[in-house]
């Protein structure tokens, strides 16, 4: 058995796994809603910072200032997405494990969140970031986030 | 011809059938619909927070609004185009779904609210929104916008859970 399948079996059999699977279906609908709102916040805050790093918006607002205002929103969105995502996974761990896109999406999410976390830190660092470096990391981040969104949405249909 | 018959005809059209049955088109369009949401409502959310005085208070409202306008429009074009494609694929299911109509009504209310805000801004002149204290009317419009779009997202996401069979 694949290690991920063993993992899915193990979490399905925890008390939390049982509780979520036997809960009212509205718990899952609620988790789906939090997942969408969290992701919207994550994507929009990353989009706005990255557009600024491309020099496409708010050229007179320092990237440090923008990152300081947006990073807490990004983190709030990420926490909401991850917590609701864990709830959704526990509700049908074996189904998600068998889904062709699920683990790809999770890997993309880890990469995107890692790149973005580094970017927030680096932008808020007083040492200036070269425009070329900022642009390449912003491009990478946008591509990763777009693929997380598309892969994540595809899970429900594949 | 009833609305349901018309919706059934749309759903059975070649393009509707293609989107619904293609293993790639439907998930891809759903994914792009989600990305459009981030660029449209996601960026509108930041403008709403700014007008409400909760974000980037040192950046004038008109500055943020002007900077994000083009990207918000790109987001709305993406979300409406993909939304229309999804409607073609599932028209008969959607017109029989109460959440779909709730979503459409909330969306119209959100758009009417945005239009009223833009008209008030135009009427009062360019300095109206950039006063040290944002006018209460604008703040009310921002909160209305925020909650109406939240409602649109809730109603939209619930559509697949309440399909009439």
Fold and architecture overview:
The complex is a heterodimer of chains A (158) and B (165). Chain A contains 7 helices and no strands. Chain A is mainly α and 158 residues long. In chain A, helix 3 (25-53) packs antiparallel against helix 7 (131-155), helix 4 (63-91) runs antiparallel to helix 6 (102-124) and helix 6 runs antiparallel to helix 7 (131-155). Chain A is elongated. Chain B is an all-alpha fold and 165 residues long. Chain B has helices at 3-12, 14-21, 25-51, 61-95, 98-124, 136-158. The mean pLDDT of chain B is 94.
Structural class of chain A, by secondary structure, is: mainly alpha
Poorly predicted segments of chain B: none
Distance between the terminal alpha carbons of chain A, to the nearest Å? Answer: 22 Å
Radius of gyration of chain A: 18 Å
Largest sheet of chain B: none
**Assembly status:** heterodimer
SSE pattern of chain B, N- to C-terminal: HHHHHH
**Span between N and C termini of chain B?**
21 Å
Q: Give the structural class of chain B.
A: mainly alpha
